[in-house]
Each structure stands twice: as C-alpha cells, then as structure tokens.
Amino acid sequence: MSRLAAGVVLVTAHEPPLTEDGPRGEDVGMTATAFMSVSLDPPLVLVSLREGSRMDDLLAEQPVWAVSVLAEGQRQVAGRFSMKGRISDRLLFDDLPWSRGEVSGAPLLDGALATLECRTEFRTEAGDHTLVVGRVLSASVPVSDGRPLTYFKGGYRHLSA
Which residues form the Flavin reductase like domain (predicted)? Predict the structure, then answer.
C-alpha cells in the first residue's frame, strides 16, 4: 500500500473539559492519509483511525470534528501531528495560524487547501483501525490555487508542475 499516493489531512477535535468548572478543554489533532470522500448526497467523508489512539477515543465521545486538507507548504504540520507517544497536543497548536470552526469548535488551519467540519454518522471496526464516517456540516476552500501535500512510499511528497 506504500505505492498508493494519498493526500494528507489534519483531523482535529475539541476535547471538552471534564467538568463545567474545570479548566478549558484541549484541542487535539492527528495527521491522516486514510481519508476520502464517500458520498456527495448526503456529503459524507471517511477517516481511518488507529484503534485505541487518542483521536479514536475522543471521536467515540465527541460527535463533531474537523479536517484541514494540507497544502504542500504544510509538511512540518503533518510531521508535528504524526508524532507517536505524545502526552499532550496543547503546545502543538501554539505557533500555528488557525481559527476555531463555528460548527465543531475544532481548529481549522490557515493556509489549508480546504476545510471541513463533520458530525459522526457511524463508526465501525476494521482490523486494528476504526473507520469513522462523518457528515460534512460545513466546507470551505480558503486557498484556491495551492498544491496538495501527498504521502507516497513512506514519505511526504509534492506534486510536480
């Protein structure tokens, strides 16, 4: 499967505080290459999450989430959010330009080729991953002329002109 080129996205969600009086919730992000359009009517997308990952656990509880389709200049973002074993995502968003989605409350990256806000329709186990199908609630194209960041043969790539 390393020979199948894929687009790179950042999946994000806002983890609410444990209690209403507690500190504010945390923004969580994860790089994904297993992301695709499923249906145009209704608009549905699918993301594959490693079973038991922080994002898998969060999206089992949090029904709304977001996706930023990364541009070729956002390679460092992809690398930052693909780190395994990190304890917290809190600092990962600190120096990135982003805005909070109006529907999901999740971070949407500035400079992304497209952004989506989704609500989970259903989840299903698939081997060591969970497939999450989400209904697109909002979509925008903040950058109309950029090129995508892709993943091929174990590394991030750029499309040639």
Answer: 1-158
Query: pLDDT tens, 114-147?
Result: 999 999 999 999 999 999 999 999 999 987 788 9
Cα 34 to Cα 30, 42, 73, 142: the distances in Å are: 12, 20, 20, 22
Q: What is the four-CA torsion angle of 147, 68, 144, 76, rounded to 10 degrees?
A: -40
| Residue span of the structural domain in which 49 resides | 6-15+26-158
Residue 110 lies in a domain: yes
The tally of domains found in the chain comes to 1
Q: Cβ distance 107 to 27 under 8 Å?
A: yes
The tokens 């174990």 sit on which residue? 154
Q: How many CA atoms lie within 13 A of 41 on its CB side?
A: 0
Domain-embedded: residue 20: no
Confidence of residue 8 (pLDDT cuts 50, 70, 90): very high
For residue 128, give the CATH number of its domain: 2.30.110.10
pLDDT tens-place string over residues 54-85: 899 999 999 999 999 999 999 999 999 987 66
Specify burial of residue 108 (Cβ count, 10 A radius: 0-12, 13-18, 19+).
buried
- Assess if residue 21 is contained within a domain: no
